[in-house]
Amino acid sequence: MIINLKKQFFWTKIQKNLFVLLAVLAFAACSKKEPLQIASFQTLTGWGYTISNDNKILIKQSIIPVISEVKSFESEEDALKVANLVAEKLSQNISPSVTKNDLILLKIKL
């Protein structure tokens, strides 16, 4: 009879620990993720952008990607449009690459 009590005590302890572990995991999974921070900066010939997370720069783009010329964005607005697109792709776990079609759809001055 004592053996059964010890087994029962052992299983209730495991159940309690599993419940606490599951509660902690559920809380961690539901915690709010910080959004990516987007900033523009001025270059010698135009504008660029940075995308950072927790004050760590993930992407610093000073030229327009995909085009054959080495050219900065003509306006801050253009740089931020592309930055928002890249940040959205990153938040959806999609490749952050930008295509020429993306630039055309965003009406970026090439």
Describe this structure in words.
It is a single chain. The protein has 110 residues and is an alpha+beta fold. It has two domains: 1-31; 37-105, no CATH class. Helix content is 46%, strand content 17%. The protein has helices at residues 2-30, 76-91, 100-105, and strands at residues 37-42, 47-53, 56-61. A three-stranded antiparallel beta sheet has the order 1-2-3, with helices on one face. The longest helix has 29 residues, at 2-30. The protein is elongated and about 75 Å long. The mean pLDDT is 83. Pfam families: DUF4907 (PF16250). Residues 1-28 form the signal peptide. This is DUF4907 domain-containing protein. It comes from Flavobacterium geliluteum. Keywords: Signal.
Briefly summarize what is shown.
It comes from Flavobacterium geliluteum. By secondary structure, this protein is of the alpha+beta class.
Defining traits:
110 residues, alpha+beta, 2 domains, 3 strands
- The domain count comes to 2
Task: Give a count of the beta strands, DSSP E runs of length 2 or more.
Answer: 3
Order of helices and strands: HEEEHH
> Which stretches of 5+ consecutive residues score pLDDT under 50?
none
What oligomeric state is this? single chain
